[in-house]
Amino acid sequence: FPSRNLICEVITRHLTLLEMASPATHGTITPAANFNAEAEAEKLRKAMKGLGTDEAAIIRVLTSCSNEQRQQIKLQFKTMYGKDLISDLKSELGGNLENAVLALMETPLAFDASELRAAMKGAGTDEGVLIEILCTRSSDQIRELKKVYHTQLKRDLEKDIMSETGGHFKRLLVSLLQANRDDSGVVDKDLAVKDARDLYDAGVGQWGTDESVFNKVFVSRNFGQLRATFYEYRELAGHDIIKAIDKEMSGDLKAGFLAVAQIALDPQAYYAQRLQSSMKGAGTNDRQLIRVLVSRSEIDLADVKLRFQAIYGKSLGSWIKGDTGGDYKKLLLAIAKE
User: Fold this and answer.
1) How far apart are CA 319 and CA 79, in angstroms?
2) Interaxial angle between packed helices 267-279 and 301-312, expressed in degrees from 0 to 180 and rounded to the nearest 10
3) CA 236 vs CA 7, 217, 247: distances in Å
4) Which of 30, 41, 99, 259 could form a disulfide with 135 if both were Cys (CB 3.0 to 4.6 A apart)?
5) Are 265 and 227 in contact (CB under 8 A)?
6) CA geometry: angle 294, 299, 305, nearest 5 deg
7) pLDDT beneath 70: ranges in the chain
8) Could you give the CA distance from residue 133 to residue 169 in angstroms, rounded to a whole number?
9) Tens digits of per-residue pLDDT, 178-201?
10) Euclidean distance between CA atoms 313 and 301, whole angstroms
11) Which conformational region is residue 74 in: left (phi greater than 0), alpha (psi within -120 to 50 degrees), or beta?
């Protein structure tokens, strides 16, 4: 293994490079060059006018530009025709194709907010959605998400989370909602050593588990700091943090801590796993499949595809083709650029 100082230096340098890079660098969807909102609005109007619907044209327009550009198209469409684009799309499309198109048309924060609400609305709660969103977003994103949730739904996200979850899992999500993670990207070697020792003492180093120590470290430290801490933990314990969480935790709490650890260590592998789990076995979790593809399309979906192939031995596109059909399949493949 490289020295402790070297790995902290490498992690810090890596984070600096990430901060300097465009957020769309490894996405499958990038902003369209020479974009013309009026021309794209006209194409959508033509695709939906008269008898029948040209789904291929709709797919082509919406997957050839960024989310920000789609918002411009939406505004331009209403300006030109006095009609709401979303309402027209709903009237022309149906099923999972409609759901995926509408997901593309929402801003990322509005989409997160609507997915969180859907996960908590009605009987039962989809804790996997709460974990996928709240355990993976930055502090800035969570701060803005809480505002959008309140504005869009006239509800308080923290109150909804508290009413729908319990125990240490509730504490983890409420802690994350404070949006107080250090997002500086600075890695402190001494703090990594101390946190690793604290995690060891709170878990395998004693009888029972002190979940509050895990909560403090996992929620407060930046992801580069967590990577350094997990390196120190492995040096100290002789096994990695994933194994420790798997042994010491259970249920939704385990899933939440695992998500934070995986996002720190290998975020693309985490999203590859979420995509695979949406399609494995009998049936397809289309909502999860759509959510991951759309939410990562402008961030790192190109990298997620590579990890998917490396982990599962088949391309993401081949899985999508095997689990979906029709224009819905064509849209997902267009998002993934497969």
Assistant:
1) 40
2) 70
3) 16, 17, 17
4) 259
5) yes
6) 75
7) 1-25, 205-208
8) 14
9) 999 998 889 999 999 999 999 999
10) 17
11) alpha
CA-CA distance, 156 to 109, in Å (whole number)?
15
Count of alpha carbons within 13 Å of 99, Cβ hemisphere only? 15
pLDDT tens digits, 235-279:
999 999 999 999 889 999 999 999 999 999 999 999 999 999 999
